[in-house]
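[Q] Does anyone have a clean structure-token version of this?
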Amino acid sequence: MNSYSHWLHIIILFLLSLTLGTAFAADPPVLTGSPATVVTSEILEVKIAEVEASADLPETAKTKLTELYRKALSELEATRAGNAAAEAFRAAAVAAPQDTQATRTKYEQAQQTTPEGSLALTADTPLTEFEVLLQKEKADLAAAEANLAGLDQQLENEATRPNAVQQRLTVARQQQEQIAAEIGLPSPPDELPALTEARQWVLATREQALQAEISRLDEELRSQPLRVELLNARQELAAHNARWVRSRVRLLEEAVNQRRQADLTSVQDETEAALREFAGKHPVLVRFARENAQLAEKLTTAARQLELLSARDDEIEELTTRIEQEFKSAREGLQIAGLSQALGQVLQEQRRALPDLRSFRKQIRDREALIAEFGLRRMQHREEYRKLRDLDSYAGEVLTDVEPREVGQISGELQQLLKRRHQLTGKLLALEENVLRELGLAEVHQRHLIEIVKNYDDFLAEHLLWVRTSNLTRLGDFGALPGELARFISPPDWLEVTRLLLYQALRSPIFMLVILDFGILMWKRKWMIAALQATGEKLGKPTTDSFALTARAVVLTLLAAAPWPLLATGAGWQLHHSPQG
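[A] Here you go.
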């Protein structure tokens, strides 16, 4: 029993020693307001609720406390976002080499196929199938070019990131030092303990957010070479895909045009044969044979219009690509080397070569009128096509004015002509649909071109304001004066100027108005000079002088001097904007 009590005492003492040892070994509780306090969103939400429910705190203190707690919450959210971004950069760096290799493998595999071999089309493929495939390929081309443009923009952004990241890292570390200094400062003696605590929490959470941002920026810099290498591989593959799809589009356009021309030739032959066949027969048959021939002519005209629109759209896309490349090169040149005189002169030449936006806007107005015209035609032909679905009813309406004894003689041939009319109207509807679609695409592409040209022109106007437009004059330049003088007085050049002015005078209402004003002013010039002299005689005399005479003298002087400057300005403006120049 004594032995049992002895061991029981030992066990109790051992357990007490463990409890006391744990109590004395634990960290002391962190004081409220210490910057080492672990602040969480849950704690801050509870604090905000307590402040809003408190009836003892003044309103100014409650407002300030709520503001500080919410600011700390936003800093915690920034910390989470920064840590997540840093982890994403680390994951990207790990995955980038394998993704780059896989992308390059795809590129090598893609080079083994040709656009010609990928088109499984034969001579028996219907024209409608060609057209459907062409529209699909055009949609794929738009997607491929958008993907390529996005990758180009990413690479352009990545080129400027290292410098921006280094600058931000410097600022973030300076802010960390400032926060460390603020944390060590004593709180104002009259400040509420809760405000002191909240202010310290804001500093602590801000420091955490800066540390997360620094970590993110460091990871971005470490991973950038691998990510840029992957972007280059993707850009190379995307450029190949865009070229590949563009080649397929051109092949399909050629195939569609050839098939359409063959189809139109066949239609023309058939309608001409029908005209010969029904010549001299019943007037109703002759009328529908002629109307079918007119539909065939409309088909040919619409096909020609579609071909011209497609060619013009290709020109717009090529011009857009060229100006975008020049715009990109100009931005890169300015970022790398700054604006030198040599670069400025190159950019000046590019600005002079930019297309005239007014001609583009006129083309848009003309295209809108063409869209309205084709839209109206399509409505009419759709209604006709709907009626022709019921050939018996249509033929019955046509034959209402025909003698009953003639109906049986011509009804079979009329059915044949109406059936052909139905086929031709369907072909014309499909072709007009393609024309309207091409007009819509051209509208979008040209508006995009206008936007690119305007942005580039604004960019050049901003950066070329103080750039010298030519080299400094040197002694050797005077040696070129005889040649320049001979060119200035060259008769062929002046004949060309005269031709352009005559061309504009016959086509430009504004220039015609300028010439008319010039003639009137020259005709009245002697009268204006005489009136000016008469007005001058009355000036300076107290009995006759007035402000109205001074104003009249100014107006007469300007009108008498205006004719030649007006003509020179109008002629120069017309020469600059003449489409024949």
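[Q] Thanks! Anything notable?
[A] The first helix runs from residue 2 to 25.
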